Amino acid sequence: MEASTTAKEEKCADKDERTPLLGRDVSMGNVGVVGDDRGRRSAWWIRSVAVAGFVALFALGTLLLLATRLYPPSIYLRPDPQPISGAFQFQATYSHLDILSEGTAGDSKITISLGTSAFSHVAYAIEADKGNEQAQRDTRVAAILMEGILHVRVVFPSKSKGRLHTEVRVTLPQTLDTFTLQGHLASLHYEGPNVHAAFNATVHTGGIKIMSPLEVAGAAFGELSGGHFVLKTGVGNVAVLEPLNVGLGSVVVETNAGAVDVARVRAATLRAHAKIGNVAVQEGILVGGGFADLETNNGGISGTLSEYASVSARANTGSIEMALHPGSITASVFSFSGLFSAATQMGSVQVSGAAVHKVTAGSGWVGEDEAAAKGLLDAETRIGSVKIDFL
Question: What is the pTM of this model?
Fold first, then answer.
């Protein structure tokens, strides 16, 4: 019996000796299993980290979903579309250039420049907003030389989902007989060679700017010849910034909504109209006793004219500030309100109109009140008569 008890005590002792591997709480007189506590704490931390990770992933997914709704993937996944470009080269000579920009889904900027090589070049680049790549691919630019005429065509598709723009630059090594541009949404910057006979640019919407001196004098008949020069746009400014000479020909510069600015022109007839905008002719020489017709519905008229037979100036709501020089002067001025001065060194002066108030025979104002006069008309010649009708 004692031997059995002693054996059990020895087994307990052996067990107690192995227990410190798990830890012993001596102060309380009890044996504790510290390893189990550590396991429980480790499991708790693992569960906490797992829950926190799940919450973070859920929050990130929610943010990505919200970003996708607010900003479609096309915005941040697709790069900006690159321009589609190309070029044509021609060695043969020609005398006519014809350009057409067709369609309202996009706009064209046409630049004509003078080259230094013996070849003609037509270069283009088609640009589009992100998401409008299909319309960009459907836009066509072509150039073909046929029977002495270089044809350049820009054709836009019927639909576009955003900005669609085409840049076309035509580089010419030679002068032309005629130049023609027609377009819906197109602008023209002409800094190219001379055009001998006819220059015609007509667009529905877009500005026109001539930055090269031109001698559009017509066929080779010297001073007796005359060319034709026409610039028309529905919406946009029209500017002739360099000297223009058409001999005994005609110049027509018109815009419905925009300004007309002509630096220096020599022609038999001049027509400059702007329905909404100013009309300015810095220097107009009307050869052969020519005729000038200047008109604006909502804007002012300004400039200097000489060597003319008659002048018509009409400004419905704006002012007129004109200087009329040598030769006989016959002018009809519509809807004018302001000061006037008419003088000649040899000849007669006649000024008439229902609202004319004369200070001298050739000076005074038009309108009810001199203080409210906002326009200025100065007509002066050395030899010849001066006749002005304010209507």
Answer: 0.72
